[in-house]
Amino acid sequence: MNERTRGDRIRSVWLSRYKEPFKNPPTEMAEALTGQRIERVHRVGKHIVFDLGESSAHPASTQWIVHLGMTGRLLVSAADIPLPPHTHAVLSLTSGRELRFVDPRRFGRLALHPISDAQPFCGPGHEPLTISTADFRALFRNRRLPIKAALLNQKLLHGVGNIYADESLFHAGIRPTRMAGRLTRDRLDRLRAALQSILRKAIELGGSSVSDYVDADGVAGFFQLEHRVYLRTGLPCLACGTPIRRILLAGRGTHYCPHCQR
After folding, report:
1. pTM here?
2. Which phi and psi (to 5°) does residue 213 adopt?
């Protein structure tokens, strides 16, 4: 997304009539975005952050925060391509392209974050790809909740979703129901290494297209081909042959191997 839109300018903004995606009033958001130059696009946890400024000579003064939710997509399209159903925002760019936010279930969120009098948006938790060993251990100390629930807690680690929590726990050999505060340092160190490895691999492969996820070009991801437990309920474990089990944990479907994960 950064390579596709950096340096482009937002010429005009159209927003849908539905209120759910917008954390700011739509008229306020449209006015704030119009005329802004996209200085940089980067990720903070599960959020896509657009740094916006009036010109390249001045630092960004506003950030546009996009959270895709469960079914959201952010697409860069030619203006003559018909709008997909459930499009809730269209940013027309001076390059002639359009930046489109599409979300059938409207669980995604769009927000403005002014940074003139505040810190840049940093999300609620730690960044899993850069957290140190000591800080990772400290996150789970005395936590009386299952490790799977702790991994999904965005106030602890931002950006870890259901798929990558399941896959990381499998690679670390840890059962998702284990109490986070009772895991040894060695097991937490293995989990940190597994989590970082899984996330980097997923980014390299463009994510997991298990539903309707696509990237900014409308291209599906391929990490689902690497799944060892997620959505493999009843199928033999690829490591030991034991059928993969599914339970409900922290309100999410949770997949694990009862033999490999203890």
Report:
1. 0.72
2. -70, 135
Q: Residue 181: what are its φ and ψ, rounded to 5°?
A: -70, -10
Using alpha carbons, select from 180, 119, 120 the residue that is nearest to residue 153.
Answer: 180
Name the helix (H) or strand (E) containing 152: helix 147-152
Task: For residues 200 and 152, give the distance between their C-alpha atoms in angstroms, rounded to a whole number.
Answer: 17
The pLDDT tens digits for 243-257 are: 999 999 989 999 999
Token match 């079914």: residue? 71
Q: Domains in the chain, ordered, with CATH?
A: 2-114 (3.20.190.10), 133-256 (1.10.8.50)
> Considering Cα of 208, then 250, then 105, then 20, what sign does the dihedral take?
negative
Of 54, 17, 27, which Cα lies nearest the Cα of 39? 54
Structure tokens at 195: 């989590």
Q: What digits encode the pLDDT tens for the residues 114-148?
A: 886 568 888 778 999 999 999 999 999 999 999 99
